[in-house]
Amino acid sequence: MAGETLLSVSGLRGGYGGKPVLQGIDLSVEEGEIVAVIGRNGVGKTTLLKTLIGLLSPMDGTIRFAGEDVTSLPADKRAKVGIGYIPQGREVFPRLSVSENLMVGETAGAGRSEPNYQRVYDFFPILKERARQAAGTLSGGQQQQLAIGRAMIGAPRLMLLDEPSEGIQPSIVQEIANNVKRLNAETGVAVLLVEQNLDLIVSMARRGFVIDKGRIVAKLGPEEITSRDVVRRHLAL
Amino acid sequence: MDFFSTAFAIIYQFGDAFAFLVLSAAGLAVIFGMMGVINLAHGEFIMCGAYVTVAVARMGVPLPLAIVAGSIAAGLVGLVIERLVIRHLYHRPLDSIVATWGISLIATQGVLIVLGSTMQGIGTPLGSVQVGALSYSTYRIVLMAAAVLILLVLWLLFYRTRYGVIARATIAAPQMARALGVDTRRVYALTFALGAALAGLAGGLYAPTMTLVPTMGATFIVESFVTVVVGGADIFLGAAPAAAILGVIRAGLTAWQGQFFGQIGLLVAVILVIRVLPNGLSGLILGNRR
Question: Where do the domains of chain A lie, and which CATH numbers do they carry?
Fold first, then answer.
């Protein structure tokens, strides 16, 4: 499967109305790879992911997923073709229990796959332990695990992961990175990661794009993205 | 024996007020709490349920089935109105108030023109029970049970079914729910239809006790809005306890000074609550929990 293009974006412009935040983005993600989009605050990383999942509509450009043009599909349809979204700040449903949060995540995979709770609980045992607890009462790291589990249950082919390290203790950051890498290795799910955390980028990504002022300004190959110096230089750009 | 009959009278008064508040507010609370839409046509959905119930019952259908038919009819009308009007006005709360008010006027006047100023009703069934010196309508006791049953069924629907979980997720974070594959427009459409069906159910249940006139929805509208305002956005933590508290106020004042003061008591209560608890009881309960 690896080597086939899963996601390809060309000439993507978009944002919140007025001057577009994204000024023509071109990037691609192959089946089963982990790709990072890096850059400073406010250069359009979160806007990019929101446009890819369909919560913001693009002004121009095309988004192709698994060979299909999904540019005009709304977010719920994109989730159903296999794009999982783990937003910045997690956005778990606070008053729903952990298992109810996962149940909502099933919607994306309905008709495509059977929800695999066992796998989610294998990766994140804490979610089984806290299954009946309200998600809003979990710690930041646990909420991050829930947000990832909630996407997993819908059997995505690509996960859009927005700043998983934000507001989480450093010790847990590494654990989450390891879990996502293991998930990628075991299920072949591709990951498009938006991050500023040096350790997380270097330990997870196999390829990278540097974004600045709404444009891709550099592409980083396997050697560059795993080099702390190169990544640090681009983050400080 | 005298003590018993007095106690029964008080409980009956309270139960009657509680049932009326819960039944008239349930549909409004679902639509407001779940969707943030203030539905000024709520009273007309009640009227729709009442008219259909009576029309079906007079064709010889047993009353319980006729009430179900009234509820379903109001739900279907709700589905159509959501599709044609409400759907285009999400995130525009003021516009949706004006639009639903317009629907309310059209419905009232339309029924007046087509069906005339009144429709022949059906008598209150089930007769009465004698407790002490007074006799009480058995049907009103059934209504109290219906109110409790409806709260229970709604709770099961929202907390024990997939639709309920997805609906609660959609209310909490509609964008996030969409990004997980939830067709939020369908959830909103079903929720609006559910609210309309609950209003229709209230109309059907009270139809045998009322005179059927096109403006009959107005009888319910004050009570339903007072309950929802006092309760806040959550029907179980808000509207239900609000109905209990307001039921006590209303039954107490009505017994003491008559119906008119019961109504004044409700309105004073709502003014106090708006002043002290702008998010209603459920805002208070949820706020403390955080």
Answer: 5-235 (3.40.50.300)
pLDDT value at A1 more than 80? no
Instruction: Kindly report, residue by residue over B34-74, the tens digit of the pLDDT.
Output: 888 888 999 999 999 999 999 999 898 999 999 999 999 99
DSSP 8-state secondary structure symbol assigned to residue A136:
G
- Extended strands (E) in A87-164: 158-162
Do B175 and A101 lie within an 8 Å CB cutoff? Answer: no
Confidence band for A62, pLDDT divided at 50, 70 and 90: very high
Judge whether residue A2 has pLDDT over 60: no
Q: Structure tokens of B219? A: 């009888």
* Cα separation of the two ends of chain A: 35
Task: Give the range among A123-127, B2-6, B193-197, B225-229 with minimum mean pLDDT.
Answer: B2-6
pLDDT tens track for B244-254: 888 888 888 87
Q: Whole-model pTM?
A: 0.87
* Count of CA atoms in the C-beta half-sphere (13 A) of B188: 23
Amino acid at A32: G
Residue showing tokens 């058995």: B138
Question: Under an 8 Å CB criterion, which residues of B touch A?
Answer: 162, 165-166, 168-169, 172-173, 175-184, 290
Nearest in space to A111 (alpha carbons), one of A73, A146, A150, A76: A76
Strand order in the sheet with A22-30: A22-30, A5-14, A60-65, A68-69
Beta strands at A5-14 and A22-30: parallel, antiparallel or unpaired: antiparallel
Name the closest residue on chain B to residue A155, using Cα atoms. Answer: B180
- Look up tokens 């309960």; give the residue: B285
Nearest-neighbour CA in chain B from A152: distance (Å): 10
Residue with tokens 């259908």: B61
- Say if residues A60 and A130 touch (Cβ distance below 8 Å): no
Residue B165 CA to residue A107 CA, distance in Å, equals 11
Residue to test with chain A: of B180, B286, B289, most A Cβ within 10 A: B180
Residue A13: phi and psi, rounded to 5, are: -120, 140
Cβ <8 Å between B168 and A95: yes
Round to whole Å and give the CA distance between B39 and B27. Answer: 9
Mean of pLDDT values over B216-230:
85
| A160-176 pLDDT per residue, tens | 999 998 888 888 888 88
CB A155 within 8 A of CB A116: yes
- Answer yes or no: are the C-beta atoms of B44 and B108 closer than 8 Å: yes
Between B255 and A150, whose confidence is greater? A150
